Amino acid sequence: MNFKQPENSDLISTVLPHFNLNGDILKIEKWGVGLINSTWKISTGQKSFILQKVNSAVFKDPTVIAHNIALISDFLKTHHPDYLFAAPQKTLSNKEIITIPPFGVFRLFTFIPNSITYTVVDSPQIAFEAAAQFGKFTKSLLGIELIHLKETIPDFHNLHLRYNQYVHAIKYANEKRKVAAGEWISRLETHKTIATDFLQIQRNPAFKKRVTHHDTKISNVLFDKNGMGLCVIDLDTVMPGYFISDVGDMMRTYLCPVSEEEKDFSKILVREAYYKAIVQGYCSEMGNELTEEEKQHFYYAGKFSIYMQALRFLTDFLNNDIYYGASYPNHNLIRAANQITLLERFSELAHSF
Ligand code: GN1
Ligand code: MG
Fold first, then answer.
1. Pocket, ligand 1, Cβ cutoff 6 A
2. What is the C-alpha to C-alpha distance for residues 140 and 76, in angstroms, rounded to an integer?
3. Do domains 8-110 and 124-352 have the same CATH topology?
4. Structure confidence at residue 51 as a pLDDT band (50, 70, 90)
């Protein structure tokens, strides 16, 4: 279904009346940097909220998200009642998530008072704290019956499938885009073994599926004013997965001082102290749970995530930007080239890890 993007006036007249805000709306601000969902911070005199419109082209069945969040929330209440869990607030009709035509699918969270988010990682301590929070999240959910946790995006981090989608995109791309991508396609080709190694992981019983976040960028961790981690947020892609997905995406997004949007590739470099902080932070929670073989794959985790994101951006460029969208010509090609450059910098460091 095609929905309209709401203006602030539409939020006030049509969307927010479905929720109990307990006060007058004083301010509506666009919030966060996500590429897929749209997010706003809603402030009232008493409390603040985070309103999110779920991208229903990507999350085809939003009830699956609501199901997973309810399952996790119940498990934590029973087994870890002190865990700070930002569950969505129910609508006046008692739903966690609601379709409001013509604007889309929405849910509302209470804004955790005094919490801070970062958009860049500028100290190893922040990287350690974030990694510890993602580790704690998975650890706290050990014991949940994975069979009941659904895949909100089927095959989301299946690298083998992502590779096949990329090959398919090359085959059917228009000539102009294929030519523009040529150099980057050949540079990516030299890293193809990352995809074949993943097939081995899938077959290896030492690699366990656990509750995995799948989007461990720094803005998905809430911190307190002293820089201590409080909890993780943005739980749409929580589903069964391998630890390499979470650790790898932290490496992809914390090791380099600039983001995937950076066009000046001379700024792309890998900060080793941050690598160590991620490994130590994650192991501070998950060290006793990971198998020896999994522990041998921290470095692979970084390659896996950077390579997969490069494939995904390049695939989208070849597919005329249908997934991520583009705000300037060649946007997804630049993002892909940025990630391929990061992969090259990361690969050069192999000797030191
Ligand atoms: C998307 O929307 P956002 O920024 O949270 C994507 C991630 C990518 C990321 C790259 C559902 O996340 O997998 O790593 O962009 N999420 C989805 O910036 O595809
Ligand atoms: Mg996300």
1. 34-36, 58, 215, 237, 260, 309
2. 7
3. no
4. very high
* CATH topology for the 124-352 domain: Aminoglycoside 3'-phosphotransferase; Chain: A, domain 2 (3.90.1200)
Please report the pLDDT score of residue 33 as a whole number: 78
Q: Compute, in angstroms, the gap from residue 118 CA to the centroid of ligand 2.
A: 15
Instruction: Quote the pTM value.
Output: 0.94
Give 231 Cα–ligand 2 centroid separation in angstroms.
15
Q: How many angstroms is it from 332 CA to the middle of ligand 1?
A: 13
The amino acid that residue 10 corresponds to is D
As its CATH architecture, domain 8-110 has 2-Layer Sandwich (3.30)
CA distances from residue 22 to 17, 45, 48 in whole angstroms, order as listed: 11, 9, 10
Residue among 35, 55, 250, 261 to mutate when testing ligand 1 (max atoms within 8 A of CB)? 35
Task: Give the C-alpha separation, 13 to 151, whole Å.
Answer: 34
* In the chain, where the domains are located: 8-110, 124-352
